[in-house]
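pasting for ref
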Amino acid sequence: MRKSALILILILLAGCQSTTQTSDVLSLDDGESSSTPIVAESIGSAPTTVGFVLSSLKGANGLAIRNGAVLAQEQLSGDKLSLAIVNSSSIIWPDGKSITLVATSGSASTAAPEGSIPVALDSIRPPSGGFAFVASHYDSLEAGLRHAAAKGGRIVIATNEDDIESLSRVKANLGGLVDIVTYGSQESAAQTAAKLSSGDPVVAIGFSGKDRKIVDIAGALRRSNQQVVIVGHKGWTETLIANSALEGAIIARPDTANFGLIAERYQARFNQPLTNAAIAGFDVMAIAAGIMRTSGEKALSREALLAPSGFRGASGAFRFRQDGTFERLFEIAQVKSGALVRIAPAPSGF
């Protein structure tokens, strides 16, 4: 990554060698249910503060987000940044603190104090005046198709969705020979497979959905001896991936290379395994810490968050777009024996 990029994983974390990996989607719904309440906390003495509005209804995930943020505050802030945790059911911010960045989940984005920047932890849609912290599955699909058709050739995007506008953007970004083909519930898998493979030879077929019919279509393509690469996206479920019909499919998923760098420290600090929810809390706090350590305590602003070189966190490299949406760099994984195996690393930077 270029020197101008803000490096969020510090050298002190490099000694961790855990082999733990993330799941295929940076989802906040990967924790077990819990009745642990989210209590108001103020951690650190610095006036500049990052706030987290969490709900006890999120159970273990809310607690994991909190713990990830605490770990980043302790290890990356250098006493220049404080952390405030509030419960979404009773939002009272600590006195004497300047709440600059507020991470929220669900409908709590309205809880951000005036002048602060809201970041939606679990949405692809940015809150008013702020940023989303989840990449679209269309971005994942595009990255997977780009890898599968790296040597050129015709690409077909198969969809049963209505969001043709997003798929048209994927098509435009890919360039070259790309067709969007819709399929419905009434046609057979064999009919859909024939429709997808008709015309000029196809090198890759990407599926924008995650419906069970994808398995049947993939099976029909195999039976007709179509030598195409099946491409999914980060929203595919474990059940879908485990089906033998999708053996060899390609999926672009969040970068797992840095996950192990904090897994041991998180386990040691909280006696819990690192989860995706914890990574989200860690990375949001680490963004703020990285900006302040690099540019000073007053540098945390919307302009700083829009740095084109982006950031590198425990979940890999990412950046915020001008429209508030979230972009990340994906590694490439392949379905092998019902599980995803990384076959190509994520790009080193934007």
